[in-house]
Design a protein that fits this description.
Shape: globular
Radius of gyration: 15 Å
Helix content: 25-40%
Largest sheet: 5 strands, mixed
Order of helices and strands: HHEEHEHEE
Distance between the termini: 19 Å
Number of strands: 5
Oligomer: single chain
Strand content: 15-25%
Number of helices: 4
Structural class: alpha/beta
């Protein structure tokens, strides 16, 4: 799933060899009416890279992802952290409070620093 039609189309084009096992669709996680069309526990993997800082309601999106995840599903979230960014770029990162909001209700999780002083990846499982 991706908010951009072009990204969903690119995924379909790239993975034609597994098309029978792969469902690709456009979805805006910030739009609750779109997200309501998906059945609970129907998604194995949701990835978000450089997205969470721009979501207006991070708690609602985190809860939606939890609702959609099938047993054993995983949610990798890659984001910069505000404390690692210069003042003028802090709007693109997550605050400690944002991190708690996004990760707080997941049963298991790990984090990995992808580059020193840069991106962090949270890998969340429910």
């Amino acid at each position: 799933m991706d908010r951009a039609d072009a990204a969903a189309a690119a995924a379909r084009d790239r993975y034609t060899d597994v098309a029978s096992r792969l469902r690709v669709r456009r979805l805006d996680f910030a739009d609750p009416t779109e997200a309501a069309t998906l059945p609970e526990r129907s998604v194995d993997l949701v990835t978000m890279r450089l997205v969470p800082a721009f979501l207006p309601d991070k708690a609602a999106v985190a809860e939606l992802v939890r609702r959609l995840h099938a047993p054993g599903g995983v949610w990798p979230v890659t984001t910069p952290l505000t404390g690692r960014l210069p003042e003028e770029r802090r709007s693109i990162g997550l605050t400690p409070e944002d991190v708690a909001t996004v990760t707080g209700r997941w049963n298991r999780g790990h984090w990995y620093d992808l580059e020193p002083g840069g991106l962090r990846c949270f890998v969340l499982r429910d």
